[in-house]
Amino acid sequence: MEHVEPTPPEVREGLRAIARHVKPFKKELWILIALGVVSAIANGFVPYITGKFFDALIQLSRGESSFVASNIPLWVFLLSVWAFVQLVANNIDWVMDRMRRHVDTKVHLNIQTQGFIHLLRLPLSYHKNVHINGTLQKLSQAGWRVSAILRTIINFAPQFLSILIGITLAASINTMLASILVLGVVLYVLLLVRILRPIAQIDSDAHHAWNEGWDDAAASIHQIESVKQAAAEEYEIQTIREALSGKARLLWEKMENLWSNVGFFQRIIVFFAQLAIFILSVRLVSEGTITVGELVALNGYAAMFFGPFVSLGYSWQVIQNGITSAAHAEEIFNVPEERYVPENAVAPKTISGKVTFKNVSFSYGSDQPPVLSTIDLDIHPGEVIALVGESGVGKSTTISLLSGYYFPTDGAVLIDDVDTRTYDLTALRQRIAVVPQEVALFNDTIRNNIRYGTPDASDDDIARAAHEAHIDDMIEKLPAGYDTVVGERGIKLSVGQKQRVSIARAILRDPAILILDEPTSALDAKTEQIVTKALEKLMKGRTTFIIAHRLSTVREADTILVFEKGTIAERGTHQELIAKEDGVYRNLYEYQIGLH
């Protein structure tokens, strides 16, 4: 496999993303920078002061005494300065660590929070075309890794400044020994740079492979009921192992092996640099070119130089991972949010429910075939409209246009004679309620699931809605009543119970337009009868759209629209359509009742 350096656009995108995420905390970052400079200066002088202190002790051991200000021994003065500098440096480092941890947490939480907010504001079309588990994984990784970048830079930057100060002071002691230190560091860094290119590509590939594997693994957990019903646990366990221990693991193992090799050769460089310094120091000390204290200082600077650089490989890996993760997350942040409030938006408090389709055509993309072609409708408030036809002929798409999830490619959809493109989408959707075929409830109480979308509803309002949905008796028999938690996606409730919770939610919403998407298709006869009664009460006085495959459920509709290949092939009442010889609706109806 050929490895190449990450593309400059990806790096630029990642850096821009990191800058945007940390911008709200620039005040804290400037304070950290200022503290870091003071800490670096203090730490940079510590080996120098230590060396001078040892020289003063050696003088003292020889009976030679030096004084500061006539009465303070030099060694006492140097020890006091050393202690003061260490205390200053340690206290600043402590303050920096606390502040850095605070900023780390805030940056991480900010990325996660803004990511979820952005996802909620993205159009439905985005969510229908992505693996949401992989998307959430990208946001999670970006949060942790961008905060790790900050932690690494805040820790390493003062050390690097200390190194620059140390190089200057080491050179003032002995240029040759300082040059050996610098040469060792240069070789160390060159080795690191040489290995970064292949590692960068491996890391990017591993991220993509991990996200794909995470999607596959998470899917089995989301579909746990189906897994249990099929007794497919062992199959899914094997799938998860293959997904999470496959390509990503091999790539990461390869990357870690490369880092291990780098670490080995870097330690060899450090060893020979220090060995050369020790050998030359023996000669220089014996010649009197440098003092023992200066040798101590030089070795202190050697530790200062190589200490940060020993972890430089890991630090660069953290930075590289963070840039990659930030760039991947930025792909999500760059998706335009849904335009909830267009210019000169219309936001009526009430609508009557009049719906008009004017020569509407629609496709899901410029390179996609049309899903709807030249649809014309004129629906009066309170009418019941049924949409029938085989799967994939445009029924659900027609309904999606009502709520502004999509807008026509050609033509216009009007509600109360106002184009949906000009509506405040929040105001529009608050006047529309949907009872879907597959109800997905939140892992919350029954009370909050009914109230969802109508946050100001009182407990009395909720009880009334539950009564009208014929679910109040069931709720009141539960030990916790309305405070019963329904489980993930409502797994603790039956299909019929979830449908009635959904109906209660719609009743509470008091919509002008009601959408019923096969709400009784998965119910037994008794439950269907109960749900149908609740729906009939809900439909009164509201413009209602019913998507149906079972034609027995739409016989009472005011108008039945028969879709075929993205067009309305027939329209009329049940009696009108059944009377058509060889009509599409009649053929579908006779097929369902067993006449074909």
UniProtKB/TrEMBL annotation:
Kindly indicate where the leader peptide sits in this chain.
none
Which of UniProt's keywords are assigned here?
A: ATP-binding, Cell membrane, Membrane, Nucleotide-binding, Transmembrane, Transmembrane helix, Transport
Q: Where in the cell is it found?
A: Cell membrane
Q: Which stretches are annotated as coiled coil?
A: none
GO MF = ABC-type oligopeptide transporter activity; ATP binding; ATP hydrolysis activity
Q: Which residues form the ABC transmembrane type-1 domain?
A: 30-321
Subcellular location, principal: membrane
What cellular component terms from Gene Ontology apply here? Answer: plasma membrane
The protein depicted here goes by the name: ABC transporter ATP-binding protein
Q: What is the lineage of its organism?
A: Bacteria, Candidatus Yonathiibacteriota
